[in-house]
Design goal:
223 residues, disordered C terminus, single chain, two-stranded antiparallel ribbon, 3 helices, mainly alpha
């Protein structure tokens, strides 16, 4: 049978089925009707045989599609369940890792804070010791400077005293020297005056002897 004959036979069987249903005796108080079962079944079998092979393939494909849809739905549900389980596992692992990281960070923070406190206490103690040493050194230096100042003042006073004493001694020595020189000069002047007077007197006597007295010198040339 050709393809066109198959379609024509399908339409004939459908028209006859419609006619059988329309002319069937109705059931009272109901929308149902009574049809000849054998004749309808023969028409349906003939209609099934008249359907092209593609229709059977399409029906098979539809059945496979249904199976595929069911399988795909099952696979989808299974994949969703697996994805949820994997997500829950990953979330649990991430939460555990986060808690472990927080615990480690908390431990490191506490250790760092303790080390920082220890270091701060050590630095504070070192600072206090340095401050005390600096204060002690400053006080010692202050006392030394005060002592040096007192010594300086004492030395300056002693120096001034020594200078005054040396000046007085020098002035006294100078005065004594001047007095000694003055005395010696006076004595020398007096002695010189006496000598000059003696010389003048001797000259006078010599002049008197030269005019009427004995000679001034003897024969040996001595006076």
């Amino acid at each position: 049978m050709t393809e066109g004959g198959r379609f024509y036979r399908v339409y004939e069987n459908l028209d006859e089925l419609v006619s059988v249903v329309e002319t069937a005796r109705g059931v009272l108080v109901s929308g149902s009707c009574v049809v000849p079962r054998g004749h309808v079944l023969d028409l349906l079998d003939d209609l099934r045989e008249a359907l092209p092979a593609e229709m059977e393939e399409a029906r098979s494909i539809l059945e496979q599609r249904t199976d595929l849809l069911v399988t795909a739905e099952d696979d989808s549900r299974r994949m969703v369940a697996e994805a949820r389980a994997e997500a829950y596992r990953l979330m649990t692992e991430a939460q555990d890792a986060s808690e472990q990281g927080l615990a480690m960070a908390r431990g490191q923070a506490e250790s760092t804070v303790a080390a920082a406190r220890t270091e701060a206490q050590a630095l504070a103690q070192q600072g206090r010791e340095d401050y005390e040493r600096a204060v002690h050194a400053g006080r010692s230096e202050h006392d030394r400077l005060v002592s040096d100042t007192d010594v300086h003042h004492s030395a300056a006073a002693r120096s001034q005293q020594l200078v005054a004493e040396a000046t007085a001694r020098a002035e006294r020595i100078t005065a004594d020297a001047d007095a000694y020189v003055e005395t010696r000069l006076s004595e020398f002047a007096e002695t010189l005056a006496k000598i000059l007077r003696s010389v003048e007197a001797g000259r006078g006597r010599l002049r008197g002897r030269g005019s009427d007295g004995p000679p001034l010198y003897d024969q040996d040339g001595r006076g």
